[in-house]
Amino acid sequence: MEQPCESPVPDYGRRLVNWYRQHGRDLPWRRTTDPYALWIAEIVLQQTRVEQGWPYYERFLHTFPDVYRLAAASEAQVLKAWEGLGYYSRARNLHRAARRIVEEHNGHLPADVQQLIRLPGIGPYSARAIASFAYGLPCAVLDGNVYRVLSRVLDDPTPINTSRSRSHYQQRVDAWLGRNPSAAFNHAIMDLGATLCTPRNPTCDRCPLADVCTARRNGTIDQRPLRVSSTVVRTLWMEYYWIEHPDGRFYIRQRDESSFWKNLWELPRRDLPDFEHHPPSGYEFCRTVHLLSHRELRLRLVAQPYETFEPGPSDRLIYRREMNEFTFPKAIRNLLEAFDRCRPTPRLF
């Protein structure tokens, strides 16, 4: 008796590459194979939307056009070029890695995934992306967009944020890559997740994998990818002080090495357990809320008299026009913008 033939496994990779060649996004880092520029792009785009990161990428490359100039810069110069992007450890790791690349690799990023991973700030995704986009090595990348596409097309219930999820999904995306050109494949699957297979309201009718998408067939698209709840968001209450000299200067303070935002500048501050049971210690100008990955920062700005303030070793007086000479977290700049809108007294700057 003749056995029925099994349906062949779809060539997901070939479909994606063909779709990308017609519909792929035109992004500046896709117009180069320069390993340095691609490395900068990958680090800028970590935890940053493309639209937000694009101008920072171009500005950073303009400021530090090659690895030698990045390695020779001071940390303060690197942080200033990074200002506004947040997650400043990325900038510090870039700086450290640049010095390692100059000292240990003659100024060239290694064309090897494992050697790339040994550099500060380069993880498995970034290493594979650089190896693929700069050197054409057959490496499939795995980021949030890729997890989503894989879990939906395969209707895979494996949570994407467990200890085994990376190796599980890496095997699947490696199989999809097959013999397809890795750069085009990686751009394609990331673009699909970013533009069509979005977290909410995916555009399935335009998807090149719609007819083989198991979650679409099973009605489980909204349930994929599955995540195990694990993130605990900690709320911090921070009271900042506007302390103004009669000549219009005001006090700023540099954070120390042991804190988040280490070595960045802010206003004098005290940390509180909450605002509800701790009223302002002076006239309150304004409040803002700023969200980080694992923290919710609740900030308020309070007036303090200059005459009673005793500055510490990390405090200094500056004019508002001098702010651009220092690197401030976005949360502090937002607080000062709110202050500008609500300040009841004439401006002195």
Write a structural description.
Helix 1 packs across helix 11 and helix 2 packs antiparallel against helix 8. The radius of gyration is 25 Å and the shape is globular. Helix content is about 40%, strand content about 10%. The chain contains 13 helices and 7 strands. The strands form 2 sheets. A 4-stranded mixed beta sheet has the order 4-1-6-5, with helices on one face. A 3-stranded antiparallel beta sheet has the order 3-2-7, with no helix packed on it. Strand 5 and strand 6 form a beta hairpin. By secondary structure, it is an alpha+beta fold. It has 2 domains: about 210 residues, Orthogonal Bundle (Endonuclease III, domain 1), CATH 1.10.340.30; about 110 residues, Nucleoside Triphosphate Pyrophosphohydrolase, CATH 3.90.79.10. The N terminus is likely disordered.
Salient structural properties:
349 residues; alpha+beta; Endonuclease III, domain 1; Nucleoside Triphosphate Pyrophosphohydrolase; 2 domains; four-stranded mixed β-sheet; three-stranded antiparallel β-sheet; 13 helices; 7 strands; 40% helix; disordered N terminus
Relevant CATH superfamily of the largest domain = Hypothetical protein, domain 2
Q: Given this structure, which CATH class of the largest domain is correct?
A: Mainly Alpha
Q: Provide the spatial order of strands within the biggest beta sheet.
A: 4-1-6-5
**Low-confidence segments, ≥5 residues, pLDDT <50?**
1-7
Q: CATH architecture of the largest domain, please?
A: Orthogonal Bundle
Q: How large is the radius of gyration?
A: 25 Å
Largest sheet: 4 strands, mixed
Q: In angstroms, what separates the terminal alpha carbons? A: 91 Å
Apparent shape: globular
Strand residue percentage: 5-15%
Helix fraction, binned, reads 25-40%
List the secondary-structure elements in sequence, H or E.
HHHHHHHHHHHHEEEEEEEH
Number of beta-strand segments? 7
Distinct helical segment count: 13
